[in-house]
Amino acid sequence: NHQILLASRPQGEPTTDNFRLVETPVPELEAGQVLVRHHYLSLDPYMRGRMNDGKSYAQPQPLDAVMIGGTVGEVVASRNGNFNVGDHVVGMGGWQEYAVVDATQRGVLQKVDTRHVPLSAYLGAVGMPGVTGWYGLVKIIDPKEGETVVVSAASGAVGSVVGQLAKARGCRVVGLAGGPDKCAYVTDELGFDACIDYRQFPDLKSLSGALKVACPKGIDGYFENVGGVILDAVMLRANAFSRVAMCGMIAGYNGEPMPMANPALILVNRMKIEGFIVSEHMNVWPEALKELGAGVATGQIKFRESVAQGIASAPEAFLGLLKGKNFGKQLVKLV
Ligand code: NDP
Question: Rounded CA gap, 293 and 295, in Å?
């Protein structure tokens, strides 16, 4: 069983030296346990935070332990009556080819139906990132028909879902993404009304100018994935009583300072700004997954994946995700 361990904690930007590839034998199953062969590993921005030792909303990832992370795969051996060989499952198996899972605790391992939804989508649009987009949009932004919703990292796993759900609710939807290819995908494939390549507008003045053109009626809802100058520019265009779902601030995950240029705008615009962690809202997951699963099964919700091949490629692919080299949900394919 090939595994990737966290070898050391990064200072600033992580490197491949922070990870170590090892091989260990798969242990014999005990009663209640299931052996899962992983087909895909999920790589997610939150993993950067767990590589640090400092205080955060997530527990730090232990050193010399398998990198924690979401996985989908197939049961290949079972000593648990609820799981049969051949079942497709989603879990938190980590960066390794096989995981021994104590499946006696409810929710540790979930069976999934791959007849209408591909297995990998349970790590993306019909999984944690999809529910994240759903929660921030539906429960925090709560958009009304005709309102303008803006989302950053718009081509990504979370952002792509946010925009499509907002379009389905009758909003004008504007994305921000890095580069012309991502922007073309966001408008032409995902159906957003406009997408701004923020790299073309590197300072606050030019970016807020671009937002003014794309959002002629101002901004009512903003789904924040990035932080920094993008947030400042959105705030300059925010309408009275606008809502911001604070989902992620990836531009600061390596410790970059992120001052807010003009916090007085929160007062002036009577804005609601609310942070959230999707795993603390398990009560909404069934409702969210129902809409997301139906959307993917019928083709109404589209998604895209960046797939790295083989366990050894995981660290490099993860470093790429933090720099926007991914185009859609970043996965590692093992089988
Ligand atoms: P994505 O698929 O969106 O990939 C990350 C993207 O972030 C990159 O593709 C890149 O897109 C963008 N990015 C990276 N660095 C920068 C930068 N310095 N400035 C601007 N953009 C950057 O990842 P996810 O969809 O999985 O996650 C999106 C966000 O949601 C993250 O911030 C993540 O931490 C957060 N999140 C929060 C959760 C919660 O519970 N609160 C749960 C899940 C995710 P581009 O090239 O377009 O810039």
Answer: 5
Tokens read off for 164: 């499509």
pLDDT in tens, 242-276: 999 999 999 999 999 999 999 999 999 999 999 99
Q: pLDDT by residue (tens digit) across 160-199? A: 999 999 999 999 999 999 999 999 999 999 999 999 999 9
The ipTM estimated for the assembled molecules is: 0.98
Asked if 70 and 133 count as a contact pair (C-beta separation under 8 A), the reply is no
226 CA → ligand 1 middle, Å? 6
**C-alpha dist (Å) from residue 43 to 104, 133, 322:** 26, 17, 10
pTM score over 0.90: yes
Instruction: Report the alpha-carbon distance of residue 262 to residue 251 in Å, rounded.
Output: 18
Walk me through the domains of the chain, giving residue ranges and CATH numbers: 2-124+304-333 (3.90.180.10), 128-279 (3.40.50.720)
**CA distances from residue 150 to 33, 73, 181, 216 in whole angstroms, order as listed:** 45, 35, 19, 12
Residues with CB under 6 A from ligand 1: 44-46, 129, 132, 153, 155-159, 177-178, 182, 225-226, 247-248, 250-251, 276-278, 321, 323-324, 326, 329
Distance CA 332, CA 314 (A): 6
HSE value, Cβ hemisphere, 13 Å, CA-based, for 147: 21
